Amino acid sequence: MTISERIFELMKEKNLTQKEFSKRAHIPESTISDWKKKGNTPSAEKLMDIANALQVSLSELLGEAVVESSREDYALNGEEKTLLEMYRALPEKQKKRCLLYFQNLSEVNGQQSSKTALEKKKETVIADTEFLLQKQLAYKLRRLARLDRIKLDESKHASGRNLHLFKYLDYLGIDKLEYLRTYLANIQPFMITEMKTQEKFENAICVLDQFYRISVYIKVDATKEEEIIVSFHENEKNGVAKKNPIFPKNNYVYVFAESLGSYVIPTDSYTINLLITRGVSTFPINVPAKKYDEDGFLVNYTYINNALTDIANQYLEDLYSTDFDFSAIEVFSSLQQLSFTSYGHDCFSNISLLIDSLLIQTDANAKMISDGALCIYCNSLDLLESDKKELIATLTTRFEVNSSRALPEILERVKMNIV
User: What is the rounded average pLDDT of the residues 303-321?
Assistant: First the structure.
C-alpha cells in the first residue's frame, strides 16, 4: 500500500471528506485529488501535517504495524518523557526537521550490507560525463551571475522573436539585468543542457533550461573578462516551439544547497534549503538530501517537483470563481507543464497560468471548465483602456512563440474577453 492509498484509507475510516481533510492539513484539494488521479505522493515535509489532520501517529500513517498491548507496554521512561516535552515545545518548523532527522536515523539503523539504490545511482552519476559537464556549466553560470560586469544585449534577431521574455519583464516593471543575475545565480545543474551547436566561439556558453513547458535558451559571452548575456528567450524555430517531455520522477538530481537544515550523524543524510527561481519568482524549499561531494547533494527530484507544482496549483485554485468545480480539472503534476510567464502574481502571469492549465486538460468537461475560468478571469479585469491595450500587445508578442496549435484561438478569446 502506498502512502497516498494509506491516507485515503484513514480518511474513510474517520469519515473525513476530502474538503474537510484539506482544511485540517492545509493542503489544496487539487493536490489531494492528484494523489488519487496520478498516484503522486505527498512531500516529506507534509507528513506531520497529514498525521495531525488524521489524528494518527506518524508510524500509523506510514502503515507500520501497531501491536496490541497493554497500557504498561507504552509507559514512557524518564528520557522518553523529556524528549517528548522538548519536542512539544519546538516551533512547527523545528518539529518537522526533528521528524526528518529521526526518519533518516531510522533508515541508517536499517541499512543492509548490500548496496542501496542510491549508492548504485551515485556510481552511475560518477561515470556520467554529462552530469559533470552540467555541474561545471551551472557552477560557471552561478559564478558569473555574481559579477558586476554583466551587460545585456537586447538586439533583435532575424526572426524578431527573441525579445518576448524581456518585454514580459518590462511589462512587470522588473529590472532585466537584476532579474537575470538572480535567475542565473539560482540555476541548478539538473535544469540545463548544453547547446554545443550554438557555441560559435571559444568562450560562449549556450544552454537550455528544460524545466518549463518550452525550454528557455540562455547564451553568455565570457570573452575578454567581460560577461555578456547575449540571449534569453524561449527556444523556437520559425516562431514555433515544442513542449518539453515530462522529466521522470524518482530520479536523483544533483543540486547546490543554499544552506543546511539538519544532519544525521554519522551519515551523509541531510535536509537542505534550496532557492529555486522559476519565472519571475524565487521559492525557498526544504528537502531531504544525501551528501554527494564537497560542492553539492543528491536529491530525489520528486520532492522539488511536488513542492513547486503544489504552489502553482494553489495559485491556480485561487483564480477560480465559485462558479466552477476546480476538483473536476487536471492539476499540474510536472514543472514542464508550466511556462516561464506563469509564476507571477499579476494579471499577465495569471492569464499565462490559466492558459497552461487549459492546455493540459484531456477530458472534454475539464477543457470546458478551464476555458470558462480563463474567459471569466479576463472579463473580470478592471483596467483602463490604455492598460488593456498594453496587456494585449504584450500577450500577442509573448505568444508568437508557442507550443500548441490551439494557442492562436485561445489568445483570440483572451483578447475578446479583456476588451
Answer: 92
